[in-house]
Amino acid sequence: MVTSDYTHIWDCCCDHGLLGSALLSRLAAPNIHFVDIVPELTNKLENKLQRFYPDSPSKWKMHCLDVAALPIEQYEGRSLVIIAGVGGDLITQFVNAIHQSHSATNIDFMLCPVHHQFTLRQQLIQLDFSLKNEVLVEENQRFYEILLVSSPTDKGDKHSKISPVGELIWQANTAEQSKITVNYLNKTLNHFQRMQLGNNADIQHIIDAYRSVSI
Ligand SMILES: C[S@@+](CC[C@H](N)C(=O)[O-])C[C@H]1O[C@@H](n2cnc3c(N)ncnc32)[C@H](O)[C@@H]1O
């Protein structure tokens, strides 16, 4: 899903840096940025990158900072911000903060939240982001929604709307993918039904939204 039209790709919350390194290996963009807030991790990763990518045609840079303070404005050209493997509630905060400080810049975000997908989608809809692509993957019996979205532009481009529960993710082309979508829908519905029973939360609208998904 990472196309070649970006000058900068930001692997945010990069941890061990596996994702950014894969992008660096395949020269996915002229500049790959690694961002994490823990100095021990960034120091270790920087040493590793120096060892393995000393003369890479794609440049790389290590940033030890809070993703909410991403310095996109200091770098010219189009940016793709990737945030994967952290909670959807935290990703919601990061996207809000980045969008607020760069509201005039069109930025693409690739987001892979752990839980809280509905909350994240609600926020993206509220911010008037548009959908470029979304997929559902299963790995080690865990399900991941991956959303490629774009912050609003004033150019009047045609936008695809983001659905609160997803749309493309439910469209399967193979028997295997079809099984994944059915299992994920059941798991998601069970989760919200348990939650409603457990703490009397008024989440009927979420349950109804997932019930209206047709596979
Ligand atoms: C579970 S790892 C994610 C790993 C990787 N992105 C992946 O998908 O495999 C979470 C990482 O997020 C980092 N992190 C948490 N809060 C952060 C913040 N506010 N800014 C930057 N990094 C943060 C942590 O230090 C940790 O390395």
Shape annotation = globular
The appropriate CATH architecture of the largest domain is: 3-Layer(aba) Sandwich
What class do helices, strands and sheet pairing give?
A: alpha/beta
Helix content: 25-40%
Q: Which residues form runs of ≥5 with pLDDT under 50? A: none
Question: Mind describing the biggest β-sheet?
Answer: 7 strands, mixed
Number of helices: 6
- Taken in chain order, the helices and strands follow as EHEHEEHEHEEHH
What's the CATH H-level homologous superfamily of the largest domain?
A: Vaccinia Virus protein VP39
> Which small compounds were modeled alongside the protein?
S-adenosylmethionine
- What Rg is obtained from the alpha carbons, in whole angstroms? 18 Å
Could you tell me the strand content as a percent range?
A: 15-25%
Averaging pLDDT over every residue, what do you get?
Answer: 95
Main β-sheet, spatial strand arrangement: 3-2-1-4-5-7-6
Model description:
The protein is α/β, with parallel strands linked by helices and 215 residues long. The protein folds into two domains: 8-161, Rossmann fold, CATH 3.40.50.150; 171-215. It is 37% helix and 24% strand. The chain has a seven-stranded mixed β-sheet, sandwiched between helices. The longest helix has 25 residues, at 175-199. The chain is globular and about 55 Å long. The relative contact order is 0.11. The mean pLDDT is 95. It binds S-adenosylmethionine. S-adenosylmethionine is lined by residues 13-15, 19, 35-38, 41, 66-67, 84-86.
Please render the helix and strand layout as text:
Blueprint (H helix, E strand, L loop, with lengths): L7 E5 L5 H8 L5 E6 L2 H14 L6 E6 L14 E9 H14 L6 E7 L2 H10 L3 E10 L2 E9 L24 H25 L4 H8 L4
Parallel strand pairs: 1-2, 1-4, 2-3, 4-5
Antiparallel strand pairs: 5-7, 6-7
Helix pairs in contact: 3-4, 5-6
The structure holds S-adenosylmethionine.
